[in-house]
Amino acid sequence: MSLNGQLVPEPSFNVIMVGSLDMPGGLRFERHTHPVHQLNWATDGVITVTADNGTWVLPSTRALWIPAEVEHSTAAIGPAVMRSVYFPLRDCPIDWSEPTVIAVSPLLGQLIDHLSRDGLAPDERTRAEAVVFDLLQPVSVTTLELPIPADARARAVVDALRADPADDRDLASWGRFAGASERTLARLFVGETGMTFGHWRAQNRMCAALPLLAEGIAVGTVARRVGYGTASAFVAAFRRAFGVSPGSYFSRASL
Fold it and tell me: What percent of the chain has pLDDT over 90?
C-alpha cells in the first residue's frame, strides 16, 4: 500500500522496511495512521510531526517513534529528506504506546542506510535489525502545547501571532484589531486555551523558535525573529520553558 507516494508495508510484513522521500519546504502530509510502527527521521533538513499529545521538531539528530495506528501529520519546514523506517508488529521488542523521541547516533543512521539496501542476505538483515533495536534510545524532551481557540476573534489574534511571533502589541491593541474588548479577549484566551494571553504568546514564541534553532540559525537572530529584545532574555525564557539552553536543545551532546 502507499500513502502520498510513500511505500507502507502491510501489517503482515515481517522485516524492517526503509523508505526515503525528498520533501520540498512546506510539504505536509495531513493526519493519517500506519498499520505498523514507524520511525520518522530527516537525514537532511528539519521535519515536524504532530499528534494529539504534542508537536515534535526533528533535525537530523533526532527521530520520532510513532506506534502503529497513532494518528499524526508530518511537515517539512524547509527542503528535507525524510527517511521512514517501518517496523512490523510481529515480534517487535518495543511496546511504547505514545510517540517517543529517539536519539539518532551516527551508528544508528548508518544501520538504517544499510537496511535500505536491496539484496541483503537474510542472516545479515537479522543481525542489523537486532542492533537497530538496541540503538533505539529514548530522549527526554519537553514539548509545548499550543491550543488554538475556536472563537473567531481570538483565532484572528492567534493567526496573526503565528505569522509574526515578534509582534508585541498589547492585549488592548489586539482587542481593537479583533473587534473585541480587552476583557473579552482575555476571557476568551483563558476559556478556550487554558492560558492567559501572555502565557500563550510566550508559548507561541518558543514554538516558533524551535524550527529556527533546528536549522542552525544563531541564537541572537532567533531571539529577534521571535520577539525578544536581547539574546539573554530569550535564553532565560527558553530555559524556563525547556530546562536547557537553546544551544544545547538539539545538539548531539545533549542526547
Answer: 61
